[in-house]
Structures
1.
Amino acid sequence: MNAHPSARELAQYIDHTLLTPEATSAEVRILAEQARSLGTWSICVSPAMLPLRDVELGPVHLAVVCGFPSGKHTPSIKAAEAAESVALGADEIDMVINIGLLKEGDADALTAEIAAVRAAAPSPTLLKVIIESAVLTDEEIVTACRCAEQADADFVKTSTGFHKAGGASVHAVELMAATVGGRLGVKASGGIRDYATACAMIDAGATRLGVSATAAILAGAPQN
């Protein structure tokens, strides 16, 4: 990525996101229209919005969250939710880990949880693992990334964007990128609302961005 990516270049990093509880099918249709117009990589929606009806995605991928936003679901429920979403058209699954397992130091249980979702949504479905980095120590961030890699996930992701502790930070993205070493992607999500912040996350190592303020972010980018 160059220092000042164009709107077209930056759009391909973006999961154009609508995850509010009050979201409607009409709003998802608008989301898809915006994604096609702006050229984003995907849209990201809640599983209850599936199957998408009267929605034309074209080249835009479909990402769906799992265990969202708390992560306090059993592994079997998360696996079932992921499997159903894939059956209903999802190309990518963004799962929230059970952060309590990480806080308790139970890396084996955390790895098993991620592996259960991976088994339910096998490749070529992309699996992104949301670790809620703002509530973690650096050591916990590293452990979460290692568990995700061990469970054969494709990405680690900073945040749901719904936690009171906050969303993505440059430090967390740098640490996550250093830990996975290019073997997994890194998705920065939560609090990215302008072009400068988006660029900072990419410079830190993010290979995907989860944002809802997509139009405003891309408006700040060079338009060539």
Note: DSSP finds nine helices and eight strands in the chain.
2.
Amino acid sequence: MNAETRPLIKPLSSGVGNMASMKAVFSRDMKVAFRQRQDLLNPLLFFVMVVTLFPLGVSPEVSFLREAGAGILWVAALLSVLLSLDHLFRHDFDDGTLEQLVLQPQPLFLLVLAKTLAHWTLTGLPLVLLAPVLGVMVHLEGNSIAVLCLTLLIGTPVLSLIGSIGAALTLGLRSAGVLLSLLIIPLYIPVLIFGTGTVAAATEGAPVAAYLALLGAFLVLAITLAPFAASAALRISLSNS
């Protein structure tokens, strides 16, 4: 077992409440992540590099960037989240922590939800915070930047929740990164379409409430179903390993 993570692994007794167990798992994942800072920085650097290099490789014209800026930022955010998904369960699988989580008396789907929330806090939330700066870089207007940040705030948790299912299914497999991309990217497309469509509607002055409502529905659906699917996938992956 990894010496860095061993002190943070504490068995949860049956008397510990569900919220307390989720808080313990969330806190542990945050502490472990900050001890492995390279895994934290890679998605953020990738996000910044894609958005920065896109105008150099395609066109630096203001009109083009203003029209395509939301799509550029959303695609970069999607790929950044995808880049970090392989580490969601990988380290815990390698050092034996995942087996301990499965054996806990608390429902596994709640522990998976806590791990996914930690993943979003470390990966998705920084992307949301960086979006205004990069939005200015691609010449988006103030209202469009605000709507972009709101769509990312709603949409990136959906990406993490859906991605947790793929990460659990491909756990322990060779070429897991390629398989994960093939499984997850088709499921990301609706979120990408409505995320960019919301910003496009805001740019044209059209109402965006319907788009935001659909993104919110995606988030509620993902929170409701994804932890159950990911926990079932984890049990299957561990039984086959």
Note: The first helix runs from residue 18 to 35.
3.
Amino acid sequence: MDPATDVFVVIDVQVDFCPDGALAVADGGAVVAPINRLARRFAHVVATQDWHPAGHGSFASSHPGAAPFSSVELSYGAQTLWPDHCVAGSPGAAFHPGLDLEPVQLIVRKGFRQAIDSYSAFFENDRTTPTGLGGYLRERGFRRAVFAGLATDYCVAYSALDAAALGFEAHVVLGACRAIDLGGSLASALAQMQAVGVGLHHGDDLA
């Protein structure tokens, strides 16, 4: 690792994605301990936070008659509909209480535009609206981004794929992630990441 040019990006380790949360990822709380260990190995750490307004367009409750985990067409294409989750300022939007935020130098909030969901740490789901993270990493001179968090097959994968597309060397620590695996989404995400050269580390460390 190069402390000057490596950054660790912690994706959406929030109450609503952990056990008993509104959109709980199976075993989601298990990512906290390895992420805390990893963060202490990096000189630079960024965290992302899903931050939706009430009635967000990605919520099934915003589409009468629609069921959670079904799909609709929005202005930017197909969108999976989710249970209401990570509503800005709510307890469920908070970081997991066990997550060590002391090493975190930047928190990027995403998904706050009413009509656009945002999986990636770099772009919203219209694939054109940037979060600003890419510019931040470039201005600070980072070259390699290492990702962990929730969920492997959505926000982690989208972030790693975008990092690679933007020219960063991207890695995912799979043992410090957990997946939703909706309709084969995990296998698809892993294949996509492998295809573009994202480094996949199967334990909970970089070894």
Note: The chain has a mean pLDDT of 97.
